[in-house]
Structures are given as C-alpha cells and as structure tokens.
Amino acid sequence: MQKKAAARTPRITIRDVASDAGVSVAAVSKVLRDAYGVSEALRAKVQASMDKLNYRPLASARGLRGRTYTLGLVFPDLRNPFFADIFAGVNAALERTRYQAMQGISTSASALVEAMIDRQMDGLILVGPNENNERLNDIAKRTPLVVIGHHDIDGAKFDAVNNDDQLGARLAVRHLCQNGHSKIAMLSLSAPVSTVINQRELGYRLEMTEQGLGGAINILRAPQVLRDVQLTIRKLLESKDKPDAIFCWTDLMAFEAISVATELGLSIPDDLAVVGYDNTIFCDFSQNRLTSIDQSGEVLGLQATRLLIERIDGRMQPDHFVVTPRVVARASSARND
DNA sequence: TACCGCGACCCACAACTGGC
DNA sequence: GCCAGTTGTGGGTCGCGGTA
C-alpha cells in the first residue's frame, strides 16, 4: 500500500493577513519590507494581524522576485572551536539586518554549495575552501561570494577575508626565539594543502632564516586525524633531534602536542615550548595555558558578512580584507609566565 | 506630498489543449 | 496514445497611478 503524504495545515499567506487587516496585499508587503509610504496606523494594523495569524513570510516565494534574505555559510568542519568564533562574528554582523545565516559542513565547494544556490540564498561565505580560483570564480558568477582563508586572489571575482598567516607564523617563531628556543619545529597539515598552510609554512621558513636558524628548519606534516597527529608528535619527541619548541598549525594540534609531551615525562615549557594557532577559548583553560596566535575569528566573520552584504547590494569590484594576527603569550611558551 | 493599492512579474512544475 | 506547446498556480515584490 502506498504511503500518503502527511496532511499539512494550510499556510497563512500575505493574502490572509491583508484580508484580516482589511488592507491590500501590497500594503502588507510594504510593511514586511519596511518600504516607503506606510503610515503608522496601517503598520500597526498589519502587525496586529500578522501576530494574530502567526504569519511567517515564505523565503522561496520571496526568492521569485529577488532576495530570500538568507546567507549560506560553509565550514570545512565544526570540531575546531575557531569556526564558532567566525560564526559568532557573522551573527553579530547580521544582528540589525533582515538576513539569517544557515550553515553547513563541506570540505569543498561541493553539492552543498550548489544546493544553497538552488535554494536562492542571497550570497555565500565559504570558510577555508579547498578549491581553485577557477571553481570559486564560477560560483561567484552565480551568487555573491566571500571566501575566508584563501590567499590566492589573483584574478579573483569574489571577495576574500584573510588573516595574515605568513606574519602569524613569523610572530610565533620570533616569540619562541625571544624566549630562548632555537630548535623550533613546525607541525603542519599534510592534506588537504591550502593557501593558508602554504603561507604559514613560508612564514616559518622566512623567520627561522632571519633568526639565523635556517639549518634547524623542520616541518612535519600530519593529516587531521587524531591518531596520526599523536604518532607524528611522539615520533618527533622521541627522536635524537628532539626540538625544544613546537609551533603547531592549530590549537587542537598544540593540545595534542602538550598531551603527548606530558605522557613522555617532558615539562612544559622547560623541556618543550608549544605555540598554537587560532587562540581559541580552550587556550585559557588552566590545564592548557597555551600560547597561541590570535587571528580574530570573530573579526573574520564580521568582515566577511559586511563584504557579502555590500556585494548583494550591488558592489561589483572584488575586495580583500586582511586581519593582522598577534601573539597571546601564556605558560606553554613563556618560562617566566 | 504621503499614503495606498492594482496588476504585472518572478520561476518551476503540473495540468490542460491540440495536432499528428 | 504520444508529444509539444500553452496556461494556471503558488506567495511574494515592484513600479506606477490614483486619491486625499
């Protein structure tokens, strides 16, 4: 036997509101859009009817004539609390607007992005997309697009918001040198390779060379899998050429470095100094006290949203916003902290 | 000039119509 | 019966004309 579709309660439409309030459909629409030419008396009447009928505008219908007031936000994953900082920035930027952000998870500009475009979202923010400019430009042709964490902006048709990752890595190395460390290893990501990783590795190399430590350059790469990260760190710390400091490409990796080092009986920071990246909320926890490079996730989210709304409002020229990172020193690196 | 409403319009899909 | 073309429908927005 065929299943019957569940019966739906008839939807309350703008026509029902207009009929209840004794005004035209257009008048209700104007109240909804806060458009010019609506008296306070009419607004109050329409608002009362909307409240009474529990009316909600239908985004897909709005999309027929223009905007749905919906923004798509795509993260590569949600395990890293840094992404929550970005989302907080997006929400803060949308607070006084009519837009709502809907988020999803994808490591590439994938079917999820296409689905968001199909659903007529007014614009997209992609965080750390693992895509080339050709693909990103193709998306930007179809919908306003802002990318967070993508440094290759030559010929880009989209807006970009970036932390200065090269400078961030340099600051990490400089900070460790200032605290008396010279055998500084970098724990990086093996795949997917991104422009962010490239910039941080470049910054590490440049600063090591500038500090006269070019011969000690040591970059290890591990995938974002806990077991692989632990094995890589253990191998490094048990090697003859053990470093006296590690610069990790995220805080999450840095926490693992601290755990493995503690298991091996090493003291932090006397035997091993550790610096992370992102300055997430967990850095402040007393068992961590992790020195980290702050790339202001909230600012990244805020600026990306600002640029996206500008784009939706008609700006054609691509824009690029760069956030300057800073060191937030804690006990994991500063011997006298 | 401020306020209000008519009617065209948007797009995808289903239903209808007419010709072969 | 099949296919292609036309019309209607859904829920909003928008431009412009009418009225006080």
TrEMBL record:
InterPro entries assigned to the protein according to its UniProt record, in alphabetical order? HTH_LacI, LacI/GalR-like_sensor, Lambda_DNA-bd_dom_sf, Peripla_BP_I
Question: What Pfam families is this protein classified in?
Answer: LacI, Peripla_BP_3
User: What's in the keyword line of the UniProt record?
Assistant: DNA-binding, Transcription, Transcription regulation
GO MF entries: DNA-binding transcription factor activity; transcription cis-regulatory region binding
* SUPFAM superfamilies xrefs: lambda repressor-like DNA-binding domains, Periplasmic binding protein-like I
PROSITE patterns, per database record: HTH_LACI_1, HTH_LACI_2
Q: Which CDD domains match?
A: HTH_LacI, PBP1_LacI_sugar_binding-like
All copies of the HTH lacI-type domain together span: 12-66
Q: What is this protein called?
A: LacI family transcriptional regulator
Annotated source species: Devosia crocina
